[in-house]
Specification:
With 102 residues, this protein is an all-beta fold. The protein has a single domain, classed as Jelly Rolls. It is 0% helix and 45% strand. It has no helices and 9 strands. Strands 1, 2, 4, 7 and 9 form a 5-stranded antiparallel sheet that branches. It is globular and about 45 Å long.
C-alpha cells in the first residue's frame, strides 16, 4: 500500500465582495492557493473569470440565491478572479484555502 501525501491547507479569513455591472477583481492571484469556494448571495447571476475580465453571458456563471463555484482538480487556478453581475449591488462570498507549511 502506498502512502499518499496531502499538503496541509488552512482557510483564509472569509470575505464578501460587492459585484457590479463592470468587471472587477474580487480576489488577487495567489501562488499559495490550494482551494477556493465562492457563493452568490445575490438575486441575479454573476459571472467569473480567472486571469481575465469577466463578461456577462460568458465564462463561469454562478447562479443566484446560493449558487456556487468550488475549485477542484480540473478547475484549479492560482490567477486572480474577476466578477461581473447582470445588475448592480450584488454580493459574492469567498473562502480561499492556502498552503500551510508544516
Amino acid at each position: 500500500m502506498s502512502n499518499i501525501y496531502v499538503s496541509p491547507a488552512s482557510g483564509q479569513t472569509p470575505r464578501q465582495r460587492g459585484v457590479t455591472t463592470t468587471s472587477a477583481e474580487v480576489l488577487g492571484d495567489n501562488p499559495s492557493r490550494q482551494g477556493l469556494v465562492m457563493v452568490n448571495l445575490s438575486d441575479s447571476t454573476l459571472y467569473i473569470a480567472f486571469g481575465n475580465s469577466a463578461v456577462v453571458g460568458s465564462g463561469l456563471p454562478i447562479l443566484p440565491y446560493g449558487g456556487g463555484f468550488t475549485m477542484n482538480d480540473y478547475t484549479f487556478c492560482k490567477e486572480s478572479v474577476e466578477a461581473i453581475g447582470t445588475s448592480a449591488g450584488q454580493l459574492l462570498a469567498i473562502q480561499e484555502f492556502v498552503h500551510r507549511p508544516l
